[in-house]
Amino acid sequence: LLVTWTKCYDLPDVVNKNAVEFLQKALSEKQLNVEIVAILNDTTGTLVKGAYLDDHCGIGMILGTGFNICYIEKAKNVEKWSDRHKYSQVLVDMECGAFGDNGCIDFMKTEFDRQIDGASLFKGSFTYANLHKISSLLLLFFCCSFEKLFSGRFAGDLVRRILLHLCEKGLLFGGQVTSLLTQPDSLTSALVSLVEEENTEGCETRKAIESLGYSTYTPDDMRIVKYVCAIVSVRGALLVSILLSVLLERMQKETVSIAIDGSLFSHPKYSQLLNDFVSELAPGRKFKLFAAKDGSGKGAGIVAAIADRMKRSATTMETKV
Asked: Does position 8 have pLDDT exceeding 80, yes or no?
């Protein structure tokens, strides 16, 4: 069942109904010869592709515009699942981007996090139960409490808000505030990552500063911008590492490989930060981070192939009987 819509979708007639049946009907009406054999989200697809590439893969993670983790759990631990005793393991989609919706991480939020949260339509939440009541003209891109702290959708604007604060305090760019610096999303997360990773030449830092409307700036301005980008990136990597470390301790496996898809992980320095932090937070746990590029789509393809094979095998057995 489709419990609730997210992002900008507003189709109340589908809520609490079988989404697969609706999709299958729509495909048939378009005379498309497609049979839906499985439905899964991007994180699950990433784990499945990861398992195809590495036998030790037990965690899948999306780390880009959005954020989420899924992992392999012992079925007996899923107490709300009545059929848990029929299986040894089950894949759990954590939807951990919503971690903190209940206020449990408010203590660690900075004033800049609160600004970003306050600018979203549903402050402090990734809950869409009442989404259908809102005019589609007002729908914006929403994100969860935890996800807002570091995801690719918000990292750039988080840096921009910090730079604006420093500028207003007279600590950056001689206190001169450009119109672009006050404009939401004028600094991209991709550029922040490039600034944080670059060498001493400062080409990317200059590009970031000039994208905010500044033509003159000092070496100190460049160092401050680079430092702010680094702080935001390091904090994000640390927060993600905390969740991964908890899972490694919970799973109690000798070795766990973690399949990751998303733009943030594609940057070498970010992946190195994850390695360093997880090693420190989960000492003694053997793990490997690896890229599962296009994992959501390719993983879904693998699941569809498995489901089709299982269906054919069951049909063959029935025929023999």
From this structure: no
What does the pLDDT look like over 255-266, one tens digit per residue? Answer: 999 999 999 998
Greater model confidence, 199 or 29: 29
Position of tokens 């943030």? 264
CATH number of 42-99+146-295: 3.40.367.20
* Whole-prediction pTM: 0.85
Mean pLDDT for the stretch of residues 83-98: 91
